[in-house]
Design goal:
Elements: E1 10-12, E2 15-17, E3 21-23, H1 38-49, E4 54-61, H2 79-94, E5 98-104, E6 119-120, E7 133-134, H3 140-157, E8 161-168, H4 171-176, H5 191-194, H6 196-209, E9 215-223, H7 235-248, E10 252-256, H8 274-282, E11 287-289, H9 313-320, E12 326-329, H10 331-335, H11 339-344, H12 356-361
Helix pairs in contact: 1-2, 3-6, 6-7, 7-8
Length: 364
């Protein structure tokens, strides 16, 4: 299997990765009070030491009570918090890796257990039921500025890039999706209008971090509440969806897929994945993701099922076809922090499998 090209550097803006492997963002809820501790630094250090070129952190709550819950999800405000992230950054850099912070606002998916009212485009959840409240039009510039200020902080403390979470039915994705965006004020209706606020967030972040600091934009078709959800039904709509983000200043697109090899629009191309289409319609660098190295679906319906490593020849074929530039790995890195090194050394064929309970324990 030809994998040597995965171990070549990749550069965009001020970021240079030593190879083409990233760690996918995965929520852990392991930062009491929002402060990433020494255990968090060690968790990420081990993956960087295992060969990962770019660590993308778990989702980091914007410093707004409505942005996320529980408080064990890390944030990006306060001296103790920033000192904790400084230790994470230093640990990853010491091992030769790079690290991006993912900025996250849960929107109406936020849990209401602590009495804070969730906010979203229209005050409805993914099933159309009332939840929380709709953001007022005059609140949107303040919220975009919150993203911008957080991104500027990330750059100041040493993160190598910033990723904006606009996937899986969270806030920015709620603006993109017809089911959760029922607005009639210029931020809802047509696809172009639904992209307006996320694009304003990108533009605000770009203004805050300058021209060379990489902005990664993570989006998805599927939602946590609906694996069949869609915001683009064909390549033309995908181009219309992504063009405003490219124009606003995104450097890298990160389409989240449940399976990296699934064709996105079979009627247009029976093989090309969402990553491949994203690169084709935008020309930007792309991160592919989705069950890399595994042969199960995103979530097993069978408790205790052993997750076996899947053949990687399809991933290599997609890379050789130019469908993506970087591949993000999730569960395989939870179970085996040295997965990238083991792949390079040809040791994975002898690996007996991933126990999902072991993998999930790394998140706790």
């Amino acid at each position: 299997m030809a994998i040597d090209d995965f171990f070549t550097p990749f550069s965009v803006g001020s970021l240079t990765m030593p190879n083409r492997f990233a760690m996918a963002p995965m929520t852990r809820e392991a930062s009491p009070g929002g402060i990433p501790g020494a255990d968090v630094a060690e968790y990420y250090r081990r993956r960087a030491a295992g060969g990962v070129g770019l660590i993308i952190t778990e989702g980091v709550r914007l410093p707004d009570p409505a942005a996320g819950y529980p408080t064990t999800i890390p944030t990006l405000a306060g001296d103790d918090v920033l000192a904790g992230w400084g230790r994470v950054i230093d640990a990853v850099h010491t091992e030769g890796g790079t690290v991006a912070v993912q900025l996250w606002h849960q929107g109406v998916q936020r849990d209401e257990a602590d009495g804070v009212v969730p906010v979203g485009p229209s005050g409805v959840d993914a099933f159309g039921a009332p939840k929380g409240r709709a953001l007022a039009t005059d609140e949107l510039p303040q919220l975009a500025q919150l993203y911008a200020d957080s991104a500027a902080t990330a750059r100041e403390i040493g993160f190598d890039a910033v990723e904006l979470n606009s996937c899986h039915g969270y806030l920015l994705d709620q603006f993109l999706w017809e089911r959760t965006n029922l607005r009639s004020d210029g931020y809802g209706g047509s696809l172009a209008a639904r992209t307006r606020f996320p694009a304003e967030v990108v533009a605000a972040v770009r203004g805050a971090v300058g021209p060379d600091y990489p902005i990664i934009f993570r989006f998805s078709q599927w939602k946590i509440t609906d694996y069949t959800g869609s915001i683009a039904d064909d390549p033309t709509q995908l181009q219309e969806l992504l063009a405003p983000f490219v124009e606003a200043g995104v450097d890298v697109l990160h389409p989240s897929m449940r399976r990296h090899y699934t064709p996105a629009f079979p009627d247009a191309d029976p093989e090309r994945s969402l990553a491949g289409w994203t690169k084709k319609v935008t020309g930007l660098p792309v991160i592919a993701v989705g069950s890399v190295g595994l042969e199960t679906s995103f979530r097993s319906e069978e408790h205790g099922q052993v997750i076996q490593p899947a053949p990687l020849d399809r991933l290599v074929k997609q890379f050789e076809a130019g469908e993506f530039d970087v591949v993000a790995v999730g569960r395989a890195l939870l179970a085996d922090p040295g997965w990238v090194h083991r792949l390079r050394n040809g040791e994975l064929d002898a690996f007996t499998g991933y126990d999902p309970e072991v993998a999930l324990s790394a998140l706790r």
